[in-house]
């Protein structure tokens, strides 16, 4: 089997409509997903599996993540797409966007729509992300414009591991 980008995006957008909650290390929409396991879940929905070493890294992603370590792992397994002026002109739906949270590149979202003609103070992308409020009490999967004020640390394309 090969990775189907379009299906990946469709599956992610469909699961958002189910009202899935945020849960750290959640691997199933029925009990909740986090920002790292959301794309991993959609990848598995295609009957695919990440290499065991990568799957282990995802399963062990800590609640207070070291984003720099996450970037190193992603750079080892995925294809990095250049970020230019806080945008990713070569991005495609299905790419992983890593954003800084308080100077730590620890949050991941999946690009589902692209609008490179948006002005400098407008969103250039729509993403699906598992987001938790700063108070750590409320969180859920969202399908929303990427806030133009969020700083992008990196962008990655999922290769066909099959």
Summary keywords:
162 residues; alpha+beta; six-stranded antiparallel β-sheet; two-stranded antiparallel sheet; 8 strands
What report would you give on this structure?
- The chain has a six-stranded antiparallel sheet, covered by helices on one side. A two-stranded antiparallel ribbon has the order 1-2.
- The model has no long low-confidence stretch (mean pLDDT 91).
- The longest helix is centred in the first third of the chain and has 12 residues, at 5-16.
- It starts with a helix and ends in a 5-residue tail after the last strand.
- The chain has 162 residues and is α+β, with helices and mostly antiparallel strands.
- The protein has four helices and eight strands.
Q: What is the string of helix and strand elements?
A: HEEHHHEEEEEE
- Tally of contiguous helical segments: 4
- Computed CA radius of gyration, to the nearest angstrom: 15 Å
Arithmetic mean of pLDDT: 91
List segments where confidence is low: pLDDT < 50 over at least 5 consecutive residues.
none
If strands are numbered along the chain, what order do they take across the biggest sheet? Answer: 3-8-4-5-6-7
Distance between the termini: 6 Å
Percent helix among the residues? 10-25%
Largest sheet: 6 strands, antiparallel
The number of distinct β-strands equals: 8
Strand percent estimate: 25-35%
Shape: globular
């Amino acid at each position: 089997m090969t990775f189907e980008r379009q299906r990946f995006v469709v599956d992610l957008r469909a699961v958002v409509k189910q009202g899935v909650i945020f849960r750290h290390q959640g691997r199933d929409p029925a009990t909740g997903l986090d920002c790292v396991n959301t794309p991993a879940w959609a990848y598995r929905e295609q009957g695919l599996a990440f290499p065991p070493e990568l799957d282990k890294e995802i399963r062990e992603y800590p609640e207070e993540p070291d984003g720099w370590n996450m970037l190193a792992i992603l750079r080892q397994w995925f294809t990095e797409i250049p970020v230019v002026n806080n945008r990713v002109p070569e991005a495609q739906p299905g790419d992983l966007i890593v954003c800084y949270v308080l100077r730590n590149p620890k949050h991941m979202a999946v690009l589902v729509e692209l609008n490179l003609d948006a002005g400098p103070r407008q969103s250039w992308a729509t993403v699906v992300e598992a987001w938790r409020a700063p108070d750590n009490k409320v969180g859920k999967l969202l399908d929303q414009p990427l806030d133009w004020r969020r700083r992008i640390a990196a962008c990655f394309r999922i290769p066909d591991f099959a």
